[in-house]
Amino acid sequence: MNPAVPTWAGVAASVALVVLSVAVAWQQRLHLAREIAIAAVRAGAQLVAVGAILLLVFRHTGLAGASGWLAVMVLIAGRVAARRAAGLPRALPIATAAAAAGTAATLGTLLALGVIATQARVVIPVGGMVVSGAMQATALVLVRLRDEVRSARPAIEARLALGLPAADAFAPHLRSTLRTALIPAIDSTKTVGLISLPGAMTGLILAGVDPLTAIRYQIVVMYMLLAAAALAALTAARLTERALFDDAHRLRPLTAQPQEARR
User: Fold this and answer.
1) pLDDT tens-place string over residues 132-188
2) Around Cβ 32, how many Cβ atoms within 10 Å?
3) In sequence order, what DSSP letters do the residues of 147-199 get, joined into one string?
4) Quick check: 249 pLDDT over 90?
5) Rounded distance, CA 216 to CA 226, Å?
6) Side-chain-facing half-sphere of 154: CA atoms under 13 Å
7) How far apart (Å, rounded) are the C-alpha atoms in residues 85 and 95?
8) Across-strand partners of 245?
9) Which among 102, 93, 164, 91 has a CA at the least distance from the CA of 127?
10) What contacts 156, CB < 8 A, 6 or more positions away?
11) Coil, helix or strand at residue 251
12) In which band, very low, low, confident or very high, does the pLDDT at 263 lie, cut at 50, 70 and 90?
């Protein structure tokens, strides 16, 4: 048994931290105590279930099983990102396509160049990180574009009235959105190792891997997350631009009021 990995008794003991969080929320009357408890129970149950499924995938399937698992992740990521951007036309297919594009291009490059192994136990966790990064960038783009259309519709329509095509009329808002969406990935890349040790590197070190070996893996992880965010953000922005304008270069109305996504 690896002494760096908590036992199930240790996991049970860590519930005390959840109790502490619930107590703080209750004492401060934040009305979040129940949500914290439900989130903790849900997280534990989900992770146990995922761990059991991954055990079967690792033992009995190869790259095909890993690809199927990643496809499910992409579908879930697209749904989560789309719910953040309620009101945009075709938000769900756009979000799913953006997450898929960022994931496929990034992970495909790593596999084609032999940077990571084709084993399911490697592809699934690495792919999960890529899907997560693509989802976050996609959600930021969709939410920001929705808000830009709501607040800047008169300016966009004024440019259209002056004879500018849809792409030119919308270009300033598209560029601003892409810059905003990429800031988290860029800042994380610039400060990696200075503020905190990232998850992949921390996990390898806890598993007993030499720190310099862990650093090599973490560098690859940071680069792939940056690429996934950039590709997903660009895909989401371009597809959203097409969905917002009709063939006559008219700005379509947003179809619904934004709602806070449920967790």
Assistant:
1) 999 999 999 999 999 999 988 999 999 999 999 999 999 999 999 999 999 988 988
2) 15
3) HHHHHHHHHHHHHHHTT--HHHHHHHHHHHHHHHHHHHHHHHHHHTTTS---H
4) no
5) 16
6) 1
7) 9
8) 251
9) 102
10) 149, 169, 170, 173, 251
11) strand
12) very low
The owner of tokens 């502490």 is 20
CA distance 154 to 157: 5
Contact 170, 245 (CB under 8 A): yes
Whether the Cβ atoms of residue 75 and residue 96 lie closer than 8 Å to each other: yes
User: Measured between alpha carbons, how far is 263 from 261 in angstroms, rounded to an integer?
Assistant: 6
Count other C-beta atoms under 10 Å from residue 123's C-beta: 22
Across 65-86, b (16+ Cβ under 10 Å) vs e yields bbeebbeebbeebbbbbbbbbb
Q: What is the pLDDT of residue 260?
A: 44
Q: Is 245 helix (H, G, I), strand (E, B) or coil?
A: strand
Q: What is the value of pTM for the model shown?
A: 0.81
The 8-class DSSP code of residue 207 comes to: T
Please list the residues that pair with 251 across neighbouring strands. Answer: 245
- CA Rg value for the chain: 21
The model's pLDDT over 42-84, given as tens digits with 9 standing for 90+, comes to 999 999 998 898 888 888 778 888 899 999 999 999 999 999 8
